[in-house]
Write a structure and sequence with these properties.
The complex is a heterodimer of chains A (113) and B (112). Chain A is built from no helices and eleven strands. Chain A has 113 residues and is mainly beta. In chain A, strand 7 and strand 8 form a beta hairpin. Chain A is globular. The N and C termini of chain A lie far apart (33 Å). The model of chain A has no long low-confidence stretch (mean pLDDT 96). Chain B is built from no helices and eleven strands. The mean pLDDT of chain B is 94. Chain B is globular and about 40 Å long. In chain B, the strands form two sheets. In chain B, strands 2, 4, 5, 9, 10 and 11 form a six-stranded mixed sheet that branches. The chains are: A mainly beta (113), B mainly beta (112). Chains A and B meet through strand 4, strand 5 and strand 10 of A and strand 4, strand 5, strand 9 and strand 10 of B.
Chain lengths: 113, 112
């Protein structure tokens, strides 16, 4: 597609469950970022991939959060043992090598009950 | 710690006027600064980027200034229209591959 796509658009789960959020970056973009946005706040960085490897995972809040990008394209953010405080919009962005602009997807709205 | 501040209160202006949004930062040495627009339920959309060695950037009705001495960027929308109503986010980065650090955003409301 033309832009970054994310699925699902909405996810409701129960406390303690496991969830997976998917990101399809713009074709040809080697850099991929995950951010989390709480209501009334700006996005907060979680993790950055360059190709298949995580180049910076300093924003992951704890070891319940994990992300993969096995083939250097699609990425999955995985959250184990979800907590109510994990409720937020999870945004994915991609960037072409050599350029500064990050292009964001529409986000996945996660609600943990 | 690093801090990026944007007007937390909504900015209400009349159609046709110039909207000016402020972004201030502390404990940060950005290589460049970006402005994004975000509509409700949508992801941020890139508007403009300005580098640390640039003072001003323009694109159509948009203008950004960057003062690394004052640690401040101003974002201007001239001849504002109701369609410009949205939240505008300021984001800083230390390099091309680096993460973006965002402010909390300023909500702009343009009325007829």
């Amino acid at each position: 597609g033309a832009g970054v796509s994310q699925t699902p658009s909405n996810k409701v789960t129960e406390k303690g469950k496991y969830v997976e959020l998917r990101c399809d970056p713009i074709s040809g973009h080697t850099a991929l970022y995950w951010y989390r946005q709480s209501l009334g706040q700006g996005p907060e960085f979680l993790i950055y991939f360059q190709g298949t490897g995580a180049a910076d995972d300093s924003g992951l809040p704890n070891d319940r959060f994990f992300a993969v990008r096995p083939e250097g394209s699609v990425s999955t953010l995985k959250i184990q043992r979800t907590e109510r405080g994990d409720s937020a919009v999870y945004l994915c962005a991609s960037r072409r090598t050599g350029e500064e602009t990050q292009y964001f997807g529409p986000g996945t709205r996660l609600l943990v009950l | 710690s690093q801090k990026i501040e944007q007007n937390s209160e909504a900015l209400n202006i009349q159609e046709g006027k110039t909207a000016t949004l402020t972004c201030n930062y502390t404990n940060y040495s950005p290589a460049y600064l970006q402005w994004y627009r975000q509509d409700p339920g949508r992801g941020p959309v890139f508007l403009l980027l300005i580098r640390e060695n640039e003072k001003e950037k323009r694109k159509e009705r948009l203008k950004v200034t960057f003062d690394t001495t004052l640690k401040q960027s101003l974002f201007h929308i001239t001849a504002s229209q109701p369609a410009d109503s949205a939240t505008y986010l300021c984001a800083l980065s230390t390099g091309t591959a680096s993460k973006l650090t965002f402010g909390t955003g300023t909500r702009l409301q343009v009325t007829l």
